[in-house]
Amino acid sequence: MKHKQIQHTNWYEQYIDLINQGLSQRKACKEMGVPRSTIQHWLAERDVCDVIVDNHKEVIDETAYLLSSPKNAERLMESVAQLTKQSLNIMKDKDADPHERLKAANHVLSNLGSLDFGQDGIVDFTNESIGVASLSAGHVPNRYTVEDVTVMFNGVKLNPHEDVVEHENQRILLISDMHIPYHHPNTLAFLSYLKAKYKPTRVICLGDELDGHSLSYHEKAPELPSGMDELTQALPVIAELHKMFPKLDLLDSNHGSLVYRKAKTHGIPKHYIKSYNDVLNVGDGWKWHFDLMITLPDGNKCYLHHGKAARCLQLAEKMGCCAVEGHYHNSFSIEYYGTPFALNWAMQVGCLVDFKSLAFSYANVNIKRPVIGTGLIIDSQPVLAPMLLDEDGKWIKPKDYFEIVGCAA
Q1: pLDDT digit string (tens) for 100-110?
Q2: 259: domain range?
Q3: H or E element in which residue 233 lies
Q4: Averaged pLDDT, 355-376
Q5: 181: preceding bond cis by omega (within 30 degrees)
Q6: Domain final residue pick, 158, 188, 204
Q7: How many CB atoms lie within 10 A of CB 351?
Q8: What are the Cα distances from residue 261, in Å, to 119, 149, 215, 220?
Q9: Nearest-angstrom CA–CA distance, 120 and 284
Q10: 103 with 204, same domain?
């Protein structure tokens, strides 16, 4: 109901004046005697496009113009508002995360630079002092380019043409258990497609990148390759994977870490053993971890481990945050649970194995079969990516495959 109360006649002018005096949004609302949520609601309705400007200078994109006619000025305001409404709200919130505010400000400038309204005028961003400035329409006699302008946000220079610095965990591609060289034949093509489609900012392998069948603590199939032959078959696949993902975080796992596990069993210190980077001929961009606790862009924590609980939801509840697991080949799901403080989720991502291989004959007694696929974390939310198979077990490529992969190439 409080959003529906009658707006003060000069509420916006009063609000801007308080903000320019250095008050935070919270304090400005308190000074005005209006709830903060109400002010935020009014600002959203107003669709005012605010940016930070330094030294009274005009911020001009060389392809963006503002016509002097009121009709086109209104058109510009509406277009900008639609493109940047969410970013503007973040940017104006002085209590928001500084990284998110900087990202939002750069997003505003990037969107403004994509507008083109002809040759009759330019975009004028002016303000009487450094602080919040409103987008204004009007004729400006001289044309400026971005090179003539200094734009500041929290003391950081912005360039509308520069790419926005994204959060490291904005789009995470997760690689489920591959068990190379007993991986699904279409694994690399599938991962290449996901990389091209989602453009991950980070890639995390959940473990079992190698199978190590010949090193297993369990019975071995005599028909399968010896330890050296198995590694020889795996190395070319690892090389392709390394070419695709030169930076990769990997989790310790029961299969992937078999060399160290065997050494420990027989009392051999790690110091006597080559690193996995050396064995697999991969660069320092590949880093192994026992587990990972990461911070997502929305501020939530996410715990990643190869496999601690058959049902990942139980792990998430115990950790008190979101969670991701591999290891359990037939588990492919997303579950949620809520607390008084957050909505958390748990994701299990199946696997990318060739189930017909003798390396997995131990699972033939199970009624459940592995789910072939993997997962992603996009904008702090879990996403499952199944690899759909035909009757022969081959990947059924999605309709946009050649368009996506072609664009990437």
Answers
A1: 655 665 555 55
A2: 171-408
A3: helix 227-244
A4: 90
A5: yes
A6: 158
A7: 29
A8: 70, 59, 10, 17
A9: 54
A10: no
